[in-house]
Amino acid sequence: MWEYTDQVMEHFERPRNVGVVARIDGEGQVGSLSCGDALRLTIQVDKDKDVIEDAKFQTFGCASAIASSSALTEMIKGRTLDQALSLTNQDIADFLGGLPREKMHCSVMGQEALEAAVANYRGEKPKALEGQIVCECFGVTDVEIERVVRTNRLTTVEEVTQFTKAGGGCGKCLEKIEGILNDILRKSAPKSASGNGQAPGRLTALKRIKLIEDAISNQIAPALMRDGGDIELVDVDGPLVYVALKGSCASCPSSKRTLADFVTERLRALVDPEIVVREHKPE
Amino acid sequence: MKTIYFDNNATTQVDPKVLEAMLPYFQESYGNPSSMHHKGGEVAAALREARKRLADLLGADPAEIIYTSCGTESDNTAMWSALRTQPDKRHLITSRVEHSAIINNAAFLKRLGYRITEVGVDREGLLDLEQLKTALTPDTALVTLLWANNETGVLFPIEEVGALCREKNIVFHTDAVQAVGKIPINLKNSPIDMLSLAGHKIHAPKGIGALYVRKGLKFSPFMIGGHQENGRRGGTENVPYIIGLGVAAKLALERLPEENTRVKGLRDRLEEGLLQIPYTMVNGNRTFRLPNTTNVSFEYIEGESILFHLSHAGICASSGSACTSGSLEPSHVLRAMGVPFTAAHGSIRLSLGVGNTEADVDEALKIFPAVVQKLRDLSPFWKDNGPVQESSLLSCEGNSCQICN
User: Exposed site from A233, B181, B248, B299, fewest CB < 10 Å?
Assistant: First the structure.
């Protein structure tokens, strides 16, 4: 059973602001019946003050989708449009005392519905619809993925799926998502990693690579060897550390978890908390 | 609040008689059945009795039973044994609606270079027997099929498929975890080579399963170790649980008529009552099916939300919706059947058992309509007393997902 907070269950059991506002000034629709969750948000706007007078929702979806929609309407009522637009999906999740990682896409859906409703009121095109569709199953664009990755500081493809649903259907776009993610991580890498203008005492790129090499050969590889496995450093690119798994690790179905949990945890502790580990797949 | 437990396909309550029989084997009779002294001897004798009881439930010989830790271990043992004993054969046949123990092993075998055929089902969940027939080749090492589907209760023609496999000398395994104790099973003279079962579905505890392996079938152990189970599954026997499973098997045999009369009657009345709610349908063939299971879709609402509201009112059930499975798509079983997406996300499985009463059904039929109405009132696809005819939210943007297609 999901670990839902009391706030999630409260908003699910007794959702606030269900229905449609008396005068629809803006309307946002996100998701679809086929995809398993859908949200229709309508807002009534005080045009002189640019304030959301009323907001109501209709949601088809799980408990966290209903709770996120209910929370959203509570959070935006009485706010100016610009104040409302500054809300992030994390704000919605925080309002509910947090959501399970697998359910974070419900908070993203709320934020996108709001954006769509305001855009609709202003006669603009919603941001989420800009860009190229990456995930065809759930209609997720690269712009949307990039924003969610940046807002929530995501580092793995799995997280992108949990937050946007992208890649959660047929899985054909998973490689594309990894490419987008790696680009963002590279761009947002701390300057010290690229060796430019580092503050005194910060790592140079060379020292950092040396540290990674040492950590892998002296600490991580011996631990894996005890279980008949081995690991080899392939490349370092900004925060991304590419490694190849060998021996029993290479054919072990749980090797992905080994990577994510153990290697990442060790490298972050020993070298740099920003490190993201990737498995190098031979061509 | 009284609990109405309609989730017996997930697990069952340990029967008091089962528990009572197990308890002495924790403290008084704690010997190792392999030991050459009286503490071991008394346990070995009890194990022989338990094994016979389980064999009787299946119409098998006690020597044909191998105890395992669960249904998943039984499935793993059967698959890997069939492949290891026929190393030259590289093809495996299963179906699209199997349990994850089989599905994920098949996917793993595919990566190892095996050829896998997944036979489809029709709109009612019935096996495409013609597809299966054409898939049988001299290279086929194993056919493995669920006897009764855990989500819909739909039965596969196991005896018929077994006979086809026997004709072609292909090993045939069935995962009968949901079937055992609910439909009559007699393996004597049957063409079934291997059969998996799990104790906790028949009122024994979780953590004990068994695999039937027909006498004379080549076998390769999955768990390599000591001489236990005639060298076919190493590891000291889980004595109290094996004893418990023996009693549970005896009770299951005695209760088989009740499952197929009283429990079936309750299921049918519950199902008919639920179908009175508009835009509701049953998933799966209603004749070739377990007596205790129904899978009902409430259109335009989502399964997890239904489950939480039901739970709040005391009813325990399951759902094949995406949100409950931890994946983002609804159950592979409903998708394989082609259940329309308006219904797949709102599917609820109700699985009854001997512990249920007429009063449970009466109470449930009072609770369900209000829960469904409450969620439909929230749904953007529902207005007044029916579905919204036009909505841009009905299908996904690309119209390219597996459900829309």
Answer: A233
